[in-house]
Amino acid sequence: MISVSAVMVLMLALTAEATVGDSSQLDFCSETNECFLFDLICKTDDYEVRHYKSVKWVSTNETSFLMEFAAMKTFRRLYNYIQGANEKGKKIEMTAPVVMRIPDKGFLQTGEYRMSFLLPAEYQADPPKPIDNEDKVYIYETKDMNVYVRSYGGWLTTISDGSAAKSLSSALDSAGAKYKKGGHDAAGYNSPMTLFQRHNEVWFEADGELPCTGLD
User: Fold this and answer.
1) Where is the signal peptide (predicted)?
2) Which domains are present in the chain?
3) pLDDT tens, 87-116?
């Protein structure tokens, strides 16, 4: 008979595998040891539907006209955190993707952007608190969610992200899919030093019944 403790260990292992785990499980996540893993619910020619479990990130916000301007400040704060500006003084390994929350705003209007680094599995249960820019750097937990995803190559910029987001929203509207408005997430999987075979994604959180039910 399997003991209760053995069952608990198995459940924890399965949970870790379904959230933050070995990047070799994703073809496009090749520059970090750990990546944000997901269950692929279904896919069409225009998008994928993924299920992500709740995980913790270290995050920071910045108000700006453009994502590029916000990214310079937010990345620096988060990089300092993983380099040891935390209560344990730990250097924390980089994971993928880096996610930027993009506000829904007009051209040349300011909006609040949020950049997030996914915390490695080792720190998911008890992430160290920031000790630098404590008023701006914080631990953020995303909930269990279904996400519509559109992937694209090249560089993640305001223009490329905007184009991909428009294509995804048009495809979802045509399919009658319900998704949360007010902004979307831009996910990048590569170092700035990577010149080729880059992988980026646009995410819209699903809100209601999914327009596809399973994989072929």
Assistant:
1) 1-18
2) 4-205 (3.20.80.10)
3) 999 999 999 999 999 999 877 799 999 999
